[in-house]
Each structure stands twice: as structure tokens, then as C-alpha cells.
Amino acid sequence: MSPARRLLAVLAVLGAALAALAVAATFLGGAALSPATVVAVLSGRAPAGATETVVILSLRLPRIAAASLAGGALAVAGAAFQALTRNPLAEPSVLGVSSGAAFGVVLAQLAGLGDSLSQLLGLAGFAFAGALLAGTVVYLIAAVDGALPVQTLLLAGVIVGIFFASAITAMTSVIDVNRLGGIIHWLLGNVGPLPPVSLAVFAGLAALGFWLVLGRARELNLLALGEEAAAQLGVMVERLKLRIFVGAALLTATVVAFAGPIGFVGLIVPHALRLFLGADNRFLVPATLLGGASFLLLADTIARSIVAPAELAVGVITSLCGAPFFIWVLRTRPRVAL
Amino acid sequence: MTPLLELDGVGFRYPAPAGGRGGFALADVSLALAPGEVLAVIGPNSAGKTTLIRLLSRVLEPDAGEIRLDGRPLAEVPRAALARAVAVVAQDAPPALPFSVEQLVLMGRYPHAPTRFFESDDDRAAAREAMALTGVAELAPAPVGRLGGGERQRVMLARALAQRPRLLVLDEPTAHLDLRYQVECVALLRRVNRERGVAIVLVSHDLDLAAEVADRLLFLDRGRVARLGAAVDVLEERLLSEIYGCRVTVERNPESGRPSVRVVWPAAPAGAPAHRR
Questions:
Q1: What are the structural domains, with CATH classification, of chain A?
Q2: Do B88 and A232 touch (CB under 8 A)?
Q3: Does a structural domain hold residue B241?
């Protein structure tokens, strides 16, 4: 089978899984709606203003879209950071990049950015700046003669993450109490139903980040040989690293801006898919987009069904799965080749 | 005829470590390599051999002088074009590469079409040919991380040959190889050189190997050219003893007639070793 056909086959399987999950998620949720009601709403036979119409069209479907987007973006960011740092444990939340983006978002909220298109772009801009800042600081702390030792990178990421988390706590302490609840809810990592404009901005920015990473997937494979060997094969290494860093930071920042800092998706999904697909980033990067979307959609559906009518934050679920997963990768790392 | 590669008064100095004195420097290296020529670079540890490879492959840029490929300054040659002309096999491949042999060899095709997402059928054919030439064709689906030292060396060589270069630069190709693989490696390099007309720059600590395979030897010492010429002119007892700081004798290999260097080991102190008393 040619590589292009193989990639199409992989994407068809993962796409089908995502579609099945999305359909299932449409039927599940806190409001007890019968399958017949759901079908009636989707086929347009239910009245426009009815509760079930609002629940499905304004709550469930946008939420499914947001969860899929966030999961795909985070998983691709994880695969990108892992290839970039040649470190199997690198991931937006572990590297502190999510915390940096969250810091940016809190700053934007203090500045009072709202829901119009320009303000949404401003919000994402703040998150992006925070992600770039955190990523750069972590790199500067961890780099030793241009190399990034595995443990140093992780420690630097954790420390920078703690710093930004504390800065966020400090800022939220001075915020008006009425707005505090919203911020804390968001900080746990929640994919809420987003209005159409937000969803569009979210999708556009995520697509840009995805393109930045996918377009250099072949070069990322060569980077695994080491920077010097990659350069000797004709790769413009500094440009490659900058593009991947910007792409991964943008993906992380968009998710943090629209759904909050959701951890470990970028660790779990690329590792799981590597077991089946191997390490070739030309397969892995597009596969993580669909796999990540399915993973977070599943996690979010569990989050809003398991304690219904109450809801868990999806970030809580991913962290509960992710922390043990991190330890497993850490302990088996010599055998888990990146 | 334009030389394939020219070094014209090339100098380079690593930046000094914080608070330290000036870093290691390579100074005033000049030579011209003809197409198809085999040049061996020898010299003690930290003579500048690996630095020279980094300069040739433009991982480093010279501080002084100029390097030219086909008469064109290296700084003006795009990276991919350089990689189509010059392939480098490093001393150590990263040990835990997660790719199959075929995937790794296909990476050598990157400079031929950097904008392509997947390799073409022609790329695949070139990789198969390179694997056949180095005798690793049957290893194609094997994970690189599971190969032995000799196999890995041949796979890295296949990747370099898949680049279809005109100059092959090898850093210690026979280090970590047992005698049989060393012989195989030399036979392979000779074949590539004769059949394809590929020029070779070979960095080695093995002086006899250098004398056997190279047309000329470049003897580096502390970043300077100690001597450049045919093996008989470079491998002289006095020069070797002086630079390596130990006594050697140079004989002729009875088979090839090339010089062969023998170390005069220091005599053991008189009396039986302590543990045998």
C-alpha cells in the first residue's frame, strides 16, 4: 500500500470513530431527552423555541464541536512538542506552556475583553503571547549548549508552570468576586458550549497551528536524527524549530483561551497512536488531530454524564488519566522509543 | 578541471567558554579535493578532524578563508543543494531511533525533493538500491534501534548513499566494528568510489586503514595542517612520533606496499606484577 493510501485508511478509521462518538454524545447529557426527541430536533421537526431544541442545537452540538477542536489541537501540540524537544514526556501542560497561556487569558479578562470578533482575537492573542513567553523561558532555563536534557526540560516546565499558576492566583485575588466563579470554572478546564463566532475563531486558529506543524512533518522525522544530522540532510533546522514552536504554542493558546488549561491530552493521545502507527510524524500528526478529538469528546461526554445533573470539569478527567499515564511513560521510557 | 571541494585558508574558533580562554581553533587549512578522490584525515584527539567535517557540511561557518563546492562559495549553496552533493555519516547514530531501516534510508532522499510530503517511487527505488549496495536490503522492515553496531553502520551508510552524493564524508566509519566488518566496510567504500566515482573524505584514528584506502592523507595537529600528501610522505616515523608523543615505527605492508604504522609499546617494569606474586 502506498503511504498516501495508508494515511487515508488511517484517517478513515479515526474519522469514523469520531463521527460515532459525536452521534452518541448528541444523545447523552444532563437533560433527559429521549432518542426520539433528539432525532426530531436534528431533523427539524421540533419547534424552534422548545427546550429540547435549545439543549441540542445551542448546548450539545456546540459543546461537541468545542471538545473535538480542543482535543485535536492539544494532541497535535503534544506530538509537535515531543518531536521538537525529542522528549517523549513533552506536552503543553507539562512544559508550562498551558500555564503561560492561562496567565495571558486572565490578563485579557482583567482588561475586560468580551465576545466580539476582535475581542476574541485579542483574547487568543494574549493567550498566545503567554504561551510563547512560558515556552521561551522554559527553553532558556533548560538548554545546555543547545541541547535539552530530558529531566531538566521537565523540571523547568513544572517550575515555570507553578510560577504562572501563582501569578494567576495573585491576580484572581484582586478580581471582583462576581467574576471569580467563572474564572475558576474555566481554570479547571471546561469545554463549554461556545457561541458560533467563538467556535469559528477557535477553528480558524487551530487550523493555522495544525497547518504549521503538519507542513513540516517530514522534517520533524529528520530532526529525530539530531539537529546536526538534520542540517546535513538539508533541513533548515532553526527555521523548522521556530515554526513548530509557534505552531504548537498557537494550538495550546487557542485551547486555553476557549476551553481552559486541559492537561495531558497531548501526552496520552500521541503515545497511544504511536503504538499502532509508529513514529512517522506524517501519519502521527494528522492521526493525533482526529484521535485527540475523539479522546476529549469521550472524556467530556463522561464528564457531563457521570455525575448528572451535576458536571465534572473535563480537565479533571484528563488529569486523572494523565498523571498515571505520565508515570508509566516515565518508568518505561528507555523502551518507549519516541 | 574545477576541484569538487576547495578549502582556502580556512580558520574557525569555537566561542570561549564563560570565563575561560579562547576555545579550540582550526587555522589556515587549505586543500583541493578532485572529483572521485579519497582523502583521509588523521591526527591526534582534538586535532580538529570533526570540526573540519562540520565546516564542510556547513554546520559551522568558517571565521576566516573560504570553502567552495564546484568553485562556488559554500555560504551561497542552499542547504538542500549541499546535501545533494555532500553526504555525512556521523560517528554515532542516536541509539534509540524509532524508525525502520527503510524509513531511515529514505530520509536520505529528503534533499532531492524537500517540498514533497511522501517520498516518490523513484525515491523508494534509490533507497532499495542503496540498501542492496550495503547489504542491508533484507533488514528493510527491522527497527533501527534493534540493530547491532555493524548493521547500524551499514544502514547509516545506505542512508548517505541514498542521497546520491558526489562526496561522502565519514567520521570514524570503522570505530566499534570488529575486524570482519572493518574489512567489509573498506571493500564497500572502494566499490562506491570506483563504480560511482564518489569522492570520499574519511576521518579515522586508524592510520593503516587511512594509508590503505586514501589517495592522500591530511595530517592535522592542534588545528593546523601538519602535512598533506601521499601516505608514504605523511606517515613518517619522526613526524608521527613527534605529534603523537610516542615511539612508532613505519613498515611496508607486504601485500599492498602501503605504509603500516606500529606502536613501540613501553616495556613492562621488571619483576612480576603485584597480583601474581
A1: 65-332 (1.10.3470.10)
A2: yes
A3: yes
Radius of gyration (C-alpha) of chain B in whole angstroms: 20
Q: Is residue B273 part of a domain?
A: no
Of all residues in chain B, the one with the smallest CA distance to A7 is: B118
Report the DSSP beta bridge partners of residue B32: B6
Chain A CB contacts of B110 under 8 Å are 218-219, 222, 233-235
Given pLDDT bands bounded at 50, 70 and 90, which one contains residue A10? very high
C-alpha cell of residue B113: 525533493
Q: Scanning every residue of chain A, which has its alpha carbon at the shortest distance from the alpha carbon of B112?
A: A234
Dump pLDDT digits (tens) for B125-160.
999 999 998 889 999 999 998 888 788 888 999 999
- The residues near B217 (Cβ < 8 Å, ≥ 6 apart) are B39, B40, B41, B42, B210, B211, B227, B228, B229, B230, B231, B234, B235
pLDDT tier, A337 (very low <50, low <70, confident <90, very high otherwise): very low
Q: Please, how many CA atoms are within 13 Å of residue B197, restricted to the half-sphere of its CB?
A: 4
Global ipTM: 0.90
**Is B274 part of any domain?**
no
- Among A89-93, A143-147, B77-81, the range with the most confident prediction by mean pLDDT is B77-81
pLDDT surpasses 70 at A338 = no
Q: What CATH number does the domain containing B205 carry? A: 3.40.50.300
Using the 8-state DSSP alphabet, how is residue B112 labeled?
G
d(CA B185, CA B46) in angstroms, rounded, equals 25
> Is the pLDDT confidence value at A205 over 90?
yes
How many CB atoms sit inside 10 A of residue B115's CB?
Answer: 7
Query: B230: domain range?
Result: 5-266
DSSP state, A148? -
pLDDT of residue A336: 41
Set of cell numbers at residue B174: 570503522
Best mutation target, A7, A220, A228, A233, to test chain B (most B CBs within 10 A): A233
The answer to whether A225 touches B94, Cβ cutoff 8 Å, is yes
In this prediction, residue B17 carries a pLDDT of: 65
Do the domain assignments include residue B171? yes
